[in-house]
């Protein structure tokens, strides 16, 4: 069961609705953020909420008075502690801001908002042990600094592919990010990942990079060339739900013989060991 905060109350999601006139339905105008909940506590809620507000601002969705952002923040914190929060408060909270019913010269003055609390897609232990496969695409994510609801371009790349987890954006042969995650390769003692601006500023990405720097890893923020996959010692991705997940294949290219590497496993342990630093107090 999942629940939704909408119009000031928490309801089962099946009892919630939006008008068909909302531009999130008519034109795909909307932004969102996914916030991991551990035992009733939100992870890095301030960073997530700030990113949500910035996505809305860039998209022209009016959140200037701050009330929507404050209401979403309250809703996430309160909802995470509710008795009907899924999986005993170990779930995902997805906060949405829609375009509302009105567009004025490319801006959206009357947005709506809601938060869905639902079970996340379970990552099995063997997925960490065996690693994931990705499908490369020459497409890129439009407006990478906006966490838009519009995932159609990326989803089309994975259509019918049961052997891959998600697509990997590689416009012009440069590796950016996956549909839902940040992407990294390890090569010659360095962790290499695309810089913010070329990709979304992943909250989990930033936590993992901070932990890696503290642990003495060298970080190189640039967009690796797709040809570097053959030379990589290993690869992995990060996201709110997957945490740190190894990647062993991109398209037909096996990475390091198709086996997960030690860096991803080490960073996953570091991440789990340091969760309390970023959990809501």
What is the fold's blueprint, element by element?
Layout: E1 3-6, E2 9-12, H1 23-26, E3 30-38, E4 41-42, H2 45-59, H3 67-80, H4 86-89, E5 92-98, E6 113-118, H5 125-130, E7 132-137, H6 152-158, E8 166-169, E9 182-187, E10 190-193, H7 203-214, E11 218-221, E12 234-239, E13 243-250, E14 253-254, H8 262-273
Parallel strand pairs: 7-8, 7-13, 10-11
Antiparallel strand pairs: 1-2, 1-6, 3-4, 3-5, 5-6, 9-10, 9-12, 12-13, 13-14
Question: What report would you give on this structure?
Answer:
The protein has 281 residues and is α+β, with helices and mostly antiparallel strands. The chain is 26% helix and 26% strand. The protein contains eight helices and 14 strands. The chain has helices spanning 23-26, 45-59, 67-80, 86-89, 125-130, 152-158, 203-214, 262-273; strands spanning 3-6, 9-12, 30-38, 41-42, 92-98, 113-118, 132-137, 166-169, 182-187, 190-193, 218-221, 234-239, 243-250, 253-254. The strands form two sheets. Strands 7, 8, 9, 10, 11, 12, 13 and 14 form an eight-stranded mixed sheet that branches. It has a six-stranded antiparallel sheet with strand order 2-1-6-5-3-4. Strand 9 (182-187) and strand 10 (190-193) form a beta hairpin. The radius of gyration is 19 Å and the shape is globular. The mean pLDDT is 96.
How much β-strand is present in the residues?
25-35%
The name CATH uses for the topology of the largest domain is: D-amino Acid Aminotransferase, Chain A, domain 2
User: What's the helix-strand series?
Assistant: EEHEEHHHEEHEHEEEHEEEEH
Number of helices, counting only DSSP H or I runs of 4 residues or more = 8
Distance from N terminus to C terminus (CA atoms, Å) equals 26 Å
Structural class: alpha+beta
Mean pLDDT: 96
How many DSSP-defined strands?
14
**CATH hierarchy: architecture of the largest domain:** Alpha-Beta Barrel
CATH uppermost class of the largest domain: Alpha Beta
- Summarize the amount of helix as a percent range: 25-40%
Q: Categorize the overall geometry.
A: globular
Low-confidence stretches: none
CATH superfamily of the largest domain: D-amino Acid Aminotransferase, subunit A, domain 2
Q: Please compute the radius of gyration using only Cα atoms.
A: 19 Å
Biggest β-sheet, characterized?
8 strands, mixed
> How many domain modules?
2
């Amino acid at each position: 069961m999942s629940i939704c905060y909408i119009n000031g109350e928490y309801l089962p999601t099946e009892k919630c609705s939006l008008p068909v006139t909302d531009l999130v339905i008519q034109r795909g105008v909307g932004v969102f953020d996914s916030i991991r909940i551990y035992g009733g506590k939100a992870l890095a809620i301030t960073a997530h909420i700030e990113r949500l507000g910035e996505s809305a601002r860039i998209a022209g969705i009016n959140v200037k008075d701050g009330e929507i952002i404050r209401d979403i923040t309250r809703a996430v914190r309160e909802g995470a502690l509710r008795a009907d929060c899924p999986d005993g408060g170990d779930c995902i909270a997805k906060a949405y801001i829609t375009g509302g019913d009105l567009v004025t010269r490319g801006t959206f003055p009357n947005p709506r908002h809601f938060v869905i609390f639902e079970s996340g897609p379970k990552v099995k232990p063997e997925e960490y042990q065996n690693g994931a496969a990705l499908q490369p695409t020459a497409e890129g994510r439009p407006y990478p600094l906006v966490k838009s609801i519009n995932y159609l371009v990326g989803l089309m790349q994975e259509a019918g592919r049961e052997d891959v987890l998600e697509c990997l954006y590689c416009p012009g042969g440069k590796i950016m990010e996956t549909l839902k995650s940040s992407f990294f390769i390890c090569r010659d003692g360095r962790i290499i990942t695309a810089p913010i601006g070329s990709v979304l500023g992943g909250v989990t990405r930033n936590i993992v990079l901070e932990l890696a720097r503290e642990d003495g890893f060298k970080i190189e923020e640039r967009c690796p060339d797709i040809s570097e996959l053959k030379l990589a010692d290993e690869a992995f991705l990060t996201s709110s739900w997957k945490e740190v997940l190894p990647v062993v294949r991109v398209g037909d290219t096996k990475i390091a013989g198709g086996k997960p590497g030690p860096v991803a496993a080490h960073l996953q342990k570091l991440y789990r060991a340091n969760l309390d630093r970023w959990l809501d107090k």
